[in-house]
Amino acid sequence: MTTSHVLWLGLFLAVTSGLLLAPLYPTWKEWRHPQDMTALAFPLLPAARGPAPVERVWLTADTPLHQEVEAAHSMVVMPGSHFKKLMAPSILFGIDRPIQNRDSDAMARPSPIEALPQAIHWGANGWRIAGDCRIPAAHQLAGSLVITGHLWIGSDCLIQGDIKVHGDVSVGARTVVSGALISDACIDLQEASAVHGPLLCAGNLTLGDMVVLGQVGKPTSVCADNIFVLGTAMAHGTVHARRTGQLA
Length: 248
What we know:
- The protein has one domain.
- The protein is about 10% helix and about 40% strand.
- It has helices at about 5-20, 25-30; strands at about 55-60, 70, 75, 80-95, 110, 120, 125-130, 135, 140, 145, 150-155, 160, 165, 170, 175, 180-185, 185-190, 195, 200-205, 210-215, 220-230, 235-245.
């Protein structure tokens, strides 16, 4: 091979190498001297939303059953109505004006319970009872309860804590539970009783006349297999009947 051939071959290899490496120069430069130290900011796209709920909804016995019904302000459920899941700041059953919430801080203080039979300390400020439990009328209990049997709470009581029960629960008239109420069976709330926290029921939930669930400005969740409203009642937040809900 002559000298000229070697020179032309070297020139060809140099040009070819330059053309192949030129596109990689910006990457090599950024690697040696980084300039973009922050991640690219991608604008967040707004989540797709359905139509805004109407301000006020009325359900009657003639309203077709829907899986979900939502109102931005309030919902009125009239006698004979059936429902599945209702969502509104105020859900009124059988009435078109709110029921006065029972304020536990303003209640006349019932007699404090000194001790519960078979109760042992549970957690920081709670009690656990193996078996059934009865709380007599006009008594106050501060602390949470875990009960493996059934629970009966008398009328005009104040329970300042959460309640978890494996069996049935009966809450007497005008009694207030300031926390959550959970049962693995059925719950019966009698006239003018109130539960401020979440209410979860694995069986039937029965609401007597003038029952209040949740508080104004503090929405809660109510869920049960079947929900039966026997008179007027009011809830704030979500009321979900997994099988069926009805207002007598």
